[in-house]
UniProtKB/TrEMBL annotation:
Keywords: Signal. It holds the Pfam family DUF3048_C. Coiled coil: none annotated. This is DUF3048 domain-containing protein. Residues 49-185, 209-315 form the DUF3048 domain.
Length: 329
């Protein structure tokens, strides 16, 4: 099967600035979402980082659901993901969706169950969800969205249990799993990526805290090269050049967990407020995503295009109810 890939589309980066404290200016229409393309037209790039690929990976994008609580610590191989999304689940805790494309580690974990929010996380890059299992309603919705599922409950290859205790002991060998999957390649970039290293304009910061709920806050520190969690559970922390905080609509998923907690569903389409940390610079922005399968388009508060510098990105996907959830130092 001919592999498909996306392309580099623009040659320059527009400098971006932080939003003023005064009233907002009238918003311009902003940039349009890039169309999908093929590798036959131009040189291939990594849709998850914007970096040039020496060759097309012989695998699809795997979206691995990883527990983010002390019960399953330590997380393993999070640092080898190309992009990570942190999302809210029941009880105010969070779960990670770690997206792997250029590397396929043999010990990603600990793997937990999928959520309907994963549709909007996986669809832009034709991702395949890897999970321990999931609620019947969620599995049906993800399958109806055309997203392949590989789960421990269904006996998918590459998933097993280590010496920990269930349900916090599932791991996946992505190389083994890849031997039994259809190699469906991405067709569009996750973000609009910049082609040079131009830095945006904005206040300089070295730390940030993101409050998902009364139960969970993620703390960050910029070490001069990358953003890393200071309260994470990973054996080796993910280093993000871009830390992107997005506020999205949230609704009830329509069922409860075994403990009786209602399960929330963050809607990863539409748009809203955003704050983007590019290196040590904070930029107030907005985001738009036309549908679950669309590229995320960022603009400054006054409507100017904002392209992310190429590199690894961590997305904090927050509910719009947590309007004051972010602080930066």
């Amino acid at each position: 099967m001919k592999l498909r890939m996306l392309s580099v589309t623009c040659a320059l980066v527009l400098s971006v600035g932080a939003c003023s404290n005064g009233g907002e200016e009238k918003e311009s229409p902003g940039p349009k979402e890039p169309a999908k393309t093929t590798a036959a037209k131009v040189a291939a790039i990594n849709p998850l980082t914007g970096g040039t690929l020496k060759k097309t990976p012989a695998n699809p994008v795997f979206v691995v659901k990883v527990d983010n609580t002390p019960a399953s610590a330590p997380q393993t191989s999070i640092d080898q993901a190309d992009l990570v999304v942190e999302q809210t689940v029941e009880g105010g805790i969070t779960r990670l969706a770690a997206l792997y494309y250029t590397r396929l580690p043999g010990d990603v974990g600990h793997v937990r169950s999928m959520r309907a929010t994963d549709i909007g996380i996986a669809k832009p890059v034709r991702g395949q969800v890897v999970a321990s299992g999931g609620a019947g309603k969620t599995i049906s919705r993800i399958k109806d969205a055309g997203i392949p599922i590989h789960s421990q409950d269904a006996g998918s290859p590459g998933l097993s249990r280590d010496a920990g205790y269930a349900p916090y002991n599932v791991v996946v060998d992505l190389g083994r799993l890849n031997k039994d999957v259809k190699n469906e390649q991405p067709e569009r970039p996750y973000f609009q990526w910049a082609t040079d290293a131009a830095a945006p304009k904005g206040p300089q910061v070295t730390g940030a805290t993101v409050k998902f709920s009364r139960s969970h806050t993620t703390s960050w520190k910029f070490n001069g090269k990358a953003w890393k969690r200071t309260n994470g559970t990973s054996a080796k922390e993910f280093g993000a050049r871009n830390l992107v905080v997005l506020w999205a609509d949230e609704k009830d998923a329509g069922y409860t967990d075994p403990a009786g907690n209602p399960v929330p569903e963050t809607t990863f389409q539409g748009g809203g407020k955003a704050v983007v940390f590019v290196g040590g610079t904070r930029v107030n922005a907005k985001w738009k995503k036309a549908n679950n399968a669309s590229t995320i388009v960022l603009t400054t508060r006054d409507g100017r295009a904002m392209k992310l510098p190429k590199g690894k990105t961590w997305i904090e996907l927050l509910s719009k109810r947590e309007s004051t959830a972010l602080s930066a130092q």
